Amino acid sequence: MAFRDVLNIEVAAGNGGDGSMSFHRAKFMEKGGPDGGHGGKGGNIILRAIEGVESLERLVGRRKFKAPNGNYGEGRLRQGADGEDIYIDVPVGTTAFDEDTGKVIADLVRVGQEKVVARGGLGGRGNSTFTSSTRQAPRFAELGTPGQKRRVRLELRLIADVGLVGYPNAGKSSLLAALSRANPAIADYPFTTLSPILGVVDRIDSRGEPLDERFTLADIPGIIEGASEGKGLGLEFLRHISRTRVLVYVLDVTRDPVEELRQLQAELQAYDPTLLENVALIALNKVELVDADLAAMVEDELAQYGLPVLKVSAKEGEGLSELREITFQMLPDRELWAQDRALEVESENVVAEPLRVVFRLDPPAQGVGIVSSGAPERVWEIHGGGFEERIVRFSRYLEDAAEYLGNLFKRQGLYNALKKAGAREGDTVEIGTFRFEYFNDEDEQD
């Protein structure tokens, strides 16, 4: 199966079912009470991380996912069934972005982790909910809300404990093969590695026996100058390297390793400055090709970067035991790392929507606002606070629900906000397509 690490999909959660406007009917009971049941909730679209899948290729051919709607409520207080949730199984390491906003909406770094990427609509309440001492026969019910629709970009960012960072031909593939059980293609030309390759590295005791500790090591396509701008395989490289808990800069001692390290870090900085905060070390490779004095001099020059420097030869096996052991010692705890990642994503997506009251003296002409005697009336247009969403839920019964909505908005502080903004008795209040007259009544009603 071909390796695919980017995929665009469309998701649509189910709509909530409408609440029922119903009155009990039975023999010898001509006028029974309200008995409308609630509508069911719409199904969610949920991403789920599973193991055993290493590519998004399995989803190709299906780009649209739609969850079932919730059923309508019925009389006799019967509630509509909820729509079934739809699960989309993706590889561990998948990040989901909202294509319209660019925000991360899911970051799945553990097997079994789930995230709702499109939330089902809420079911509407039946008219039985709206009875009170003064409203004993409500002739309105609440409509269900639409399910969320999104265009989602899925990016697979390889989950590996350790990532090898280096320019083409720095010896990353050879190092992976020497340290692990992987068998990557190895040759003397750039971009031998076109897709990420994973290997497993076991910890070895003093007798050369494997211990019950291991980490995954990723050989990712070599970086080139301009990678952060998408040149070469740059973005593919950087997307995957951002997942690793430890970075190993693989430098070729026969080239200019100090300058290569500077350029590598510059590309990481341009793509995501937090990458330079990762735990990191330097593997100075191909030391078998130079004399010991030159290798020691280069080691001293690299020390200015404040990272551990290990002289290794992937070809001859020199320094590999020390590299393996130091990498094990430097690995951050996996669970704590995953928790930190989840907290970062949650904090990035907390958005508060304040109530905003806007005075509009000259409303648009297309039926929005009220005009009398050739002059525009004072119209107060309301945005935010969830008021418009509430209006929509009663759009089929607005005339019958007007009193209920007016009292509800007053209890939620809308009238006080209007009064403070300067509204006067008789002014028009506009919420979406719903318009009503403002009155200054200090007595609260049900």
TrEMBL record:
Keywords: Cytoplasm, GTP-binding, Hydrolase, Magnesium, Metal-binding, Nucleotide-binding. Residues 360-440 form the OCT domain. The keyword Amino-acid biosynthesis does not apply. Residues 160-332 form the OBG-type G domain. It comes from the Bacteria. InterPro entries: G_OBG, GTP-bd, GTP-bd_Obg/CgtA, GTP-bd_prot_GTP1/OBG_C_sf, GTP1-OBG_CS, GTP1_OBG_dom, GTP1_OBG_dom_sf, OBG_GTPase. Its EC number is 3.6.5.-. Its cofactor is Mg(2+). The keyword Magnesium applies. It is found in: Cytoplasm. It holds the Pfam family DUF1967. Residues 1-159 form the Obg domain. GTP binds at residues 166-173, 191-195, 219-222, 285-288, 313-315. Mg(2+) binds at residues 173, 193. Monomer. An essential GTPase which binds GTP, GDP and possibly (p)ppGpp with moderate affinity, with high nucleotide exchange rates and a fairly low GTP hydrolysis rate. Plays a role in control of the cell cycle, stress response, ribosome biogenesis and in those bacteria that undergo differentiation, in morphogenesis control. NCBIfam families: Obg_CgtA, Obg_CgtA_exten, PRK12296.1, PRK12297.1, PRK12299.1. Belongs to the TRAFAC class OBG-HflX-like GTPase superfamily. OBG GTPase family. PANTHER family: DEVELOPMENTALLY REGULATED GTP-BINDING PROTEIN-RELATED, MITOCHONDRIAL RIBOSOME-ASSOCIATED GTPASE 2. This is GTPase Obg. It comes from Deinococcus malanensis. The lineage of its organism: Bacteria, Thermotogati, Deinococcota, Deinococci, Deinococcales.
